[in-house]
Amino acid sequence: MSTHGYDSGRLDLPFVGVASFGKRPVVTDWSMIRADAAILGAPFDGGTQFRAGARFGPRGVREASTLFSFGHDGAYDHEDDVTYLTSDVSIVDAGDADIVHTDTEASHANIEAAVRALRATGALPVVIGGDHSITIPTIRAFDDAGDIHVLQIDAHLDFVDERHGVRHGHGNPMRRAAERDNVTGLTQLGIRNVSSTAREGYEAARAMGSDILSVRQVRRLGADATAARIPPGARVYITIDIDGFCPSIAPGTGTPSHGGFLYYEVLELLQIVAHEHEIVGLDLVEVAPAYDAGDITSVLAAQVLLNTLGFIFHARRQGG
What we know:
The chain is of the alpha/beta class. It is 30% helix and 17% strand. The protein has one domain: Arginase, Chain A, CATH 3.40.800.10.
């Protein structure tokens, strides 16, 4: 019997059953995963500097993702004339990394170990945070993956080196990523307004290989020209902070910043990048359902992830 309703004879509507990501099978014995992609929750928000609550992000995004799970074989896009995420693309929900409350290092170590375990199976790791500090251990888990380029969608640069002794909070992940030997550069998009990173942080980021564009600069360039700034042939890790979007469509986050991206601005960029580059991993962070209105932020996050996975695996099947 199908676990996703394709041929089970059951209607299996979105509001029925267990709210795994996209109502995909749950496989928490990571050594048994045989899938194209594995969804991992990283419900840690001990790195926040303002409003906590992103620890419930994985739960909220999973529940929202059931909206797009009617048991059809794939999702047809009439603009692209492509059916994405057909049954030949296998996705499993791997559950959550174990979080130790108040202990950043232990929690991060568990996240890193979980991502390593998923990578060992050959599945594409897709991590749902949690605050943006979870990208620190996630990127560490790619230390044997060869050279990678980081594409960041975010309102904030997240390039603080150290603040009052804190090096692994949600203001530090891109600095820690840039320090990795196999991270060859960063493309940081959506950075705007009053920021959590001081001027010296921007100078350090550029000196360490970052290309930084605001929302307005991306809009002036357009999706194609923006994507073209990523080095040709680069293998890309994508990290999406939901506050990169305008809070008018993504209010459920701890540090909202007005003037953000709208949905298609990000989606079109990700489609181009998925077609032109090998995507080695993906995370989406900072969804905090307690601040949401009508679950629209969680729905946005789920929709972005599902569409991006569709683009990635369509490109792989096409050899793009």
